[in-house]
Amino acid sequence: MKSEQNPVKKLQLFDTYRRGIYPFYPISDEVVSIYICGPTVYNYAHIGNLRNYVFVDVLKRVLRINDYTVQDVMNITDVGHLSSDADSGEDKMQIGARQQQRCAWEIAKYFETAFLDDLTALEVSHAGVVCRATEHIDEQISYIVQLEAKGFTYQTPDGIYFDTQMLDSYGYIARLNIAGQQGGKRVDLGHKRHLTDFALWKFSVTKDDTKERQMQWSSPWGTGFPGWHIECSAMSEKYLGPRFDIHVGGEDHISVHHANEIAQCEARYGEQPASFWMHGRFLQLDGEKLSKSGKSLRLLDLVNRGYEPLDFRYLLLTSHYRSHLNFSIKALNSAARALKRLRTMLATWPSFGEINVGYKNSFVGLVNHDLKMPQALAVLWQVTKSGLSNADKKATIYFFDKILGLSLSQQVAVKEYPQAIIDLANNRDEARKNQRWQQSDAIRKELSDLGYLIVDGKSGYKIKRI
Ligand code: AMP
Ligand code: ZN
């Protein structure tokens, strides 16, 4: 049905699992279910983290433009993410709490709110369900009980572990060379049987975790807390069922977190949960890795330097989500300049034009081809220079903004010129088009008395300050 309506625009997305771009068909005809790996809330999100969620936001907008309803779920990791992804070290929440001399529960709530505020500032819509690991302990325990019943777990002095050797397919998404890894240089496995085995449940008091924990629960195996990976399997299953359409996260998730989520689902259901696995590449800062606890840069830092959050969003749209992007103030400056130019242009153009079908098709064709946003932005700039009337350019660009999310239609007009001036200019244009010359001249005079000049051009009029 959809492909009949839009033969050239069928949505295709890159699937990390299959390492290729494939046509997207959701499990249900109308609704697309998405699970988004959310932040670990022990500190402020950095602009790299935010890149990931802007990518997801663009994806959701593209799905909506394809007439799908999006059902999305994002977790908040507020317990269980250890300082090393290999399940050693301390819980990041505990470290954060100690460093900031606040309790773990308090910092979790605080940084979750700060994160969601950053998303709002970037025009990233919040997921329909935002779910916290600490509020789904029972679901995680019962998932582990199921895995245990099927023989996929073993106990060590510090927790319950998933035995990755039980699955031939383990690590396929990352194309992990398990044999190579195991046979490689000697590593300290602790009590684990194999290098890739991972914790499902960690006990509270072990030699690794001697500090008194603030977040702990009783379980069939003893008091402790869940591992990081089980929360996503338990919560995605609870809200989306064992099979859903798209699972998203950052590129760092491929080799450990998502390999482990897949292992849990395969052990429990015999198949991996998502039709598409999509991963956003990292943003770097002047060529270096960003980290919440090390070299970091927040959205607020940019705002304090006089940038708008949407300047940063524009910058993100200039690169493809599967390419590395290096953040620099120079690049942000040119994004801010481009956005300002666009707004200024739009502010001078009349409304009520029509969306140009040709440009619309090129734009949708590009975003439907695995979210080619840089090329789609190029189409936008082509429109500004095209022979279309300014009113049609404006209507076409406002349509593009449904995907871009730059709030072009809301802010511009009033900011650059008072609405009364824009209304007068529109009335004059109407009068001129209908050859009511006297009326048109009278309005022009009125505008000029108010300090504004109307310049007619081939593609429409522009307002200028005298
Ligand atoms: P975290 O809060 O560390 O769990 O990360 C939240 C999300 O941000 C995850 O999906 C990460 O993969 C992603 N992420 C972390 N660092 C970056 C970065 N520099 N660029 C883009 N995404 C990132
Ligand atoms: Zn996850």
Q: What fold name stands as the CATH topology of the largest domain?
A: Rossmann fold
C-alpha geometry: elongated
Distinct ligands? adenosine monophosphate, zinc ion
Q: What is the radius of gyration?
A: 26 Å
Straight-line N-to-C gap: 54 Å
CATH architecture of the largest domain: 3-Layer(aba) Sandwich
Q: Report the sheet-strand fraction.
A: 15-25%
Total number of helical segments? 17
Total separate domains = 3
Structure summary, number of beta strands: 15
Strand order of the largest sheet: 5-4-3-10-11
Q: What report would you give on this structure?
A:
With 466 residues, this protein is α/β, with parallel strands linked by helices. It has three domains: 8-280, HUPs (Rossmann fold); 304-404, Four Helix Bundle (Hemerythrin (Met), subunit A) (Up-down Bundle), CATH 1.20.120; 419-465, no CATH class. Helix content is 45%, strand content 16%. The chain has 17 helices and 15 strands. A five-stranded parallel β-sheet has the order 5-4-3-10-11, with helices on both faces. The protein has a four-stranded antiparallel β-sheet with strand order 6-7-8-9. A two-stranded antiparallel sheet has the order 1-2. Strand 14 and strand 15 form a beta hairpin. The longest helix has 20 residues, at 329-348. The termini are far apart. The relative contact order is 0.12. Residues 1-8 have low confidence and may be disordered. Bound molecules: adenosine monophosphate (AMP) and zinc ion (ZN). Adenosine monophosphate (AMP) binds next to helix 2 and strand 10.
